[in-house]
Q: What sequence folds into this?
């Protein structure tokens, strides 16, 4: 691949910083690297491949001479600046929710639907972090036996709510252990030693935005609108990695043994499934790793053709930065 002129929008955020790490660790060929953020971060220096690069303020003229821009600064920024980037012949890989369900924008997980990348018209969307790890695990199973229905319950780390959420959990935990009062600003309820069954706002159907994203994004990525999906998303006091309990009903028989064989050959997956030795995916194992970990595979005896499984992956790594870089690695420009 010829070196690219790369830009990161939202470079000082958690995903932007992880993107820098991924680009360096994968030795991605870059002719130039430009970093953009809000005015308050202007002048801050970030290191990549041994070079200290000054962060610039994002403006409408930031995309001249840029081949590809990673957007990881939120939906409002993407809606405002992504079209400007495209007009400057810059391909946008967007991590926000701004364009995911736009019919003209491919929503891509490279292990699942890399063919969709070629359909882009300047913008390629990267899915929600909880969706990414789920569809990586579902893809080899769905290819063997179509998924009719799935129930997903997520246990999502606080890093999914941003750097300030991580600090709030740390401070709240220390305050509770010390018996001191604590004034929270990120979470409505106590997150330390707790589980909050709400991520995003509730819709008219009583599902949260996060739960709706998992359903609609999965159907789009898997190219199957008939798939029935119900999700419950829960925030838990873990720093990194989302864990998911997934229950799947198939059109034809797919045994746990067959599923293990399919996972063993599937890209981006590591099977950790030996309950006799208490081996199964853990958030602590997945943190800072590239893979999606699958385990606790077992038959669901309540339906004719059903499986239950446990899926874990680093939401900042594979669920955001790495997936975006993999899209660029598969982009033919």
A:
């Amino acid at each position: 691949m010829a070196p690219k002129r790369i830009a990161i929008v939202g470079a000082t955020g958690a995903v932007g910083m992880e993107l820098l790490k991924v680009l360096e660790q994968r030795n991605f060929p870059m002719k130039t690297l430009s970093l953009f953020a809000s005015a308050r971060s202007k002048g801050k220096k970030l290191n990549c491949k041994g070079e200290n690069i000054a962060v610039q303020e994002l403006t409408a003229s930031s995309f001249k001479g840029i081949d590809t821009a990673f957007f990881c600064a939120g939906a409002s920024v993407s809606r405002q600046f992504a079209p400007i980037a495209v007009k400057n012949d810059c391909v946008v890989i967007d991590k926000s929710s701004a364009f995911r369900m736009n019919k003209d924008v491919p929503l891509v997980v490279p292990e699942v639907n890399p063919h969709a990348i070629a359909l882009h018209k300047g913008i390629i969307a990267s899915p929600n972090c909880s969706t990414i790890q789920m569809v990586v695990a579902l893809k080899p199973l769905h290819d063997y036996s179509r998924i009719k229905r799935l129930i997903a319950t997520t246990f999502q780390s606080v890093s999914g709510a941003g750097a300030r959420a991580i600090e709030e959990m740390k401070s709240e935990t220390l305050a509770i252990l010390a018996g001191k009062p604590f004034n929270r600003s990120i979470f409505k309820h106590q997150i330390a030693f707790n589980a909050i069954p709400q991520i995003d706002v509730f819709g008219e159907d009583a599902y949260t935005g996060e739960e709706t994203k998992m359903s609609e994004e999965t159907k789009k990525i898997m190219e199957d609108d008939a798939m029935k999906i119900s999700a419950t998303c829960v925030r838990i006091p873990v720093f990194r990695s989302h864990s998911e309990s997934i229950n799947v009903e198939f059109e034809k028989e797919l045994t746990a043994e067959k599923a293990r064989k399919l996972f063993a050959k599937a890209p981006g997956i590591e099977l950790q499934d030996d309950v006799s030795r208490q081996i199964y995916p853990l958030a602590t194992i997945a943190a800072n790793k590239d893979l999606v970990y699958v385990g606790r595979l077992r038959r669901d005896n309540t339906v004719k053709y059903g499986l239950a499984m446990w899926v874990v992956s680093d939401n900042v790594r594979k669920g955001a930065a790495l997936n975006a870089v993999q899209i660029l690695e598969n982009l033919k420009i």
In short: The two ends are 9 Å apart (CA to CA).
